Amino acid sequence: MLCYDATEVYKPVRFGIPSSLIASVILFSSLALYPALLHPVGGNLPQTSPESQGATRTIVLDAPHGGSDPGARWPGGVTEKELVLNLTAAVAQRLQGSGYRVMLTRHSDVDLSFDERAALANGTPHAVFVTLHVGSAPPDGSVFVFYYSFGQIADAPATLTGLTLWTEAQRQWAGYSQRLAQLLQAEFQRTLQASPELPTAAAIYQLRLIAAPAVAVEIETRRPEIVPGLVGTISETLVRSLQAFQSFLSQPPPS
Amino acid sequence: MSRGQKILLIVLGSLVVGGIIYLAGLYSRLQRVQPSSMEPQLNNFPAVSEPLESASGEAVRVRLFRISAAVPGTLEPTEVTLHLPSDPAHQARLLIEALASTGPLQQRPLPPSTRVLEAYALPNGLVVVDFAPSLLSDFPAGILSEQLAVESLLETLGANLPSLRALKILVGGQEATTLAGHIDLTSAYRLTEGEAPQASLWLGPH
Lengths: 255, 206
Fold this sequence. Notes:
The structure holds two protein chains of two kinds.
Chain A: H1 19-37, E1 58-62, E2 73-74, E3 78-79, H2 80-97, E4 101-104, H3 114-122, E5 127-135, E6 142-147, H4 174-191, E7 200-201, H5 205-208, E8 214-220, H6 231-246
Parallel strand pairs in A: 1-4, 1-5, 5-8, 6-7
Antiparallel strand pairs in A: 2-3, 6-8
Helix pairs in contact in A: 2-6, 4-6
Chain B: H1 3-33, E1 58-67, E2 75-84, H2 88-101, E3 116-121, E4 126-131, H3 134-138, H4 143-160, E5 166-171, E6 189-190
Parallel strand pairs in B: 4-5
Antiparallel strand pairs in B: 1-2, 3-4, 5-6
Helix pairs in contact in B: 2-4
């Protein structure tokens, strides 16, 4: 029978150093390096920081709701999930014609989670995120633009070991989002005069997860049949606002 | 012990000391992050769960922030008289139920079926309000509707209950991600002390 002496593995193997000590050094070195591995710029969000945001030519266009979540409903069985699916597809086509790269969060009647939608935006460098909604609140025929405001939130920012938490992703982009929302709202007010002049600060959960300039646009109407007719207005407003937004990207965001 | 072993032991010792210092730092950061000033201390305070009808107390004029009929998409204050007890949690509950159950339907920021299951007021000024799950199903879909509802709660509680500073909304005893698919309910909100809506909110066409 072949036997091994268990002490054999502990014998000095190189330069008189026991292998157990080598293993210990490797272990401790790994532990010492562990925090550094967790501290990349931007934390766990593997993309651009506001300072490095270049020209925005990519738009992540979100059609909210879908699947078992119909969103808003109108008489006759019209649902928001269908309206926004068709709307985003049509707007995407126009934007592509203007030279933008457009990524849609969904192409069919599926219900994606907030995280899945955010993951698409957060994995796309130099993008802006626009989620298109349709509601039925007055004033009829208006468009409201929203941006996330952390000013309303009472909780202290949750940070640990320098990581950017998923739910804090929007914090460093909030100023840029507000500027984009201002540009969009002003453009909408010019074309659809029932719309407000200034955008609305609102703690929209989807926007909170986005590590990029992010806004929500909501068309308010009791007549959903008018929505397809707004494709041109929305596309042109997005293009004009994004062109104006480029100049802000090189400036520090408002506090 | 050879020279190499001595050097290795010194390096190893340094790493151990460094590791201990790092872990101590990490622990102190954890201690700073975890005890948030707004963290609920639910065990020490009784809940208020009596129905609205049992309320008794001094008749006071309060301001309810309802949806404006004149300028859609905004709120406007309306003065009403309510019998409010002295307990701030009970007062908050009655004010919220008044927002849902009084005034013209079109101007109510909350659905008429809104029911508050429990309310807690904590010494740090946080009021935790637990709504019945019907709030989620009966809420009119849309960002603007949800935003006006939350804004109305913050304005109304802030204007009438100066001892309260923040609001945490629960639904069915649990934290909900959103109110009806849009507005964030994962955090507590600062009360706005009855001031005019923030500058970025639309104040209507001029």
